[in-house]
Amino acid sequence: MNLDQCEAIFDRALASRNEAEFCHHITPLFDVYKILSFGLGRGNNTFWRARLVESDPWLRLKDLDYPPAEKSRVGRLNDAGSPCFYLAGRVETALLEVEAKEGQLIQVAAFKIDPKEMVRLILVGEYTYVHKAGYVRLTGVDPAGVVTKMLNEMRPEVAVATIYIDRFFASILSDPQARDSGYMFSRALGAALHSRISDADGIAFPSVRDPGGFNYAILPDPSDRVFQNVACVLAKIGQNRRYQLVDHTIVGCAGGLDDDDNFVWARPFQPNTIVMYHMTKEEHDRKAR
User: What is the pLDDT of residue 148?
Assistant: First the structure.
């Protein structure tokens, strides 16, 4: 498949009138495009989820979880009634994704993968990055050079087409205008990816609002099993800045959770401090060093 053929498929897909038509048009791309999926353990990755505080801080960890099915609306990678656990790779990315405004108070919870668990993620938008930088953004490395080796072993025209398709898929998942069409294309692409990697727990994709940032859409069951809350902060949004810079101050921080999974707020509190709890012994030792 050459680049002209790729573009013809892109154009037909973007002219689709529904999800089924979109999936039909992109099917030939998977004859070329090998989906990347990684198993991710505890490691150094921290995942962040933000929610606007309307009056008082949210009391329960459950308040920062995915919504119940009956309240779940259509999202970038989920249908109505089928929620996803949406996360970001950094605090700043999470704040940008909820479109935080000056003066607002945003509650942001941090999660790590349980030491005994692993999450399998489909990666979209990484072929291009590995080709340019030599490593996967998600992990900071290209484990055993797997992705680089895959690209190098392809015929040159196939490698270029793979990177081009990856850019197209990334643009679909991170389209800032996707809401206007009810996330029709992104939901269809998400379903197509999951149908081909049936054991995947979620999808990692470029941030919609933070260039260079990463977002994650994790299915409910694996998110319940895999993620462990390790921090929660209150961020006061300052002056709106250009170039996707979120001016904010950490004005509150949880010191842990009680037996009912309610946040226990640290008193006294030192501004701009993030307390991490549920750390492993190795993580405590690393922090001490």
Answer: 82
